[in-house]
Design a protein that fits this description.
By secondary structure, the protein is an all-alpha fold. It contains six helices and no strands.
Length: 130
């Protein structure tokens, strides 16, 4: 949703963070694997390697930092469960990007609302009464 706000180098770093996130809870489910594959295809960039701090340092503007963090929270929620290990990893990224805990909480709330709207929209596609 927000990858267009990132430069090529930022996209590569984001993919590295996303890969770390989907493995944070020790399992990789089909939905997470699908999302990671889709993001990699959309970004069209290689997945960067490095620590969270190294990867986070690639983001240069507030817009890029917020975009990456919102995307990561969305990935954490993709399977319907924001696991503690995923939340901890996202919090680590947020801290490395310079965001406070309260800023992260507000972004998480925003993403939860967006996921609920997405789920609501999906009901239009599956509603047999239409």
């Amino acid at each position: 949703m927000f990858l267009e706000n990132l430069t090529d180098g930022e996209k590569s770093a984001f993919l590295g963070l996303a890969r770390t996130l989907v493995h944070a809870d020790g399992t990789l489910n089909g939905r997470e694997e699908q999302v990671l594959g889709s993001l990699t295809a959309i970004a069209g960039e290689p997945v960067a390697e490095g620590t969270v701090e190294d990867l986070a340092s690639a983001f240069q503007t507030r817009r890029a930092k917020v975009s990456a963090l919102l995307e990561l929270v969305g990935i954490g929620l993709i399977d319907g469960e924001y696991q503690p290990a995923e939340r901890a990893m996202v919090a680590e990224v947020a801290k490395a990007l310079g965001f406070s805990e309260s800023e992260l909480t507000e972004m998480e709330k925003w993403v939860v609302r967006q996921v609920a709207l997405w789920d609501e929209a999906a009901q239009f596609w599956t509603d047999a009464d239409l």
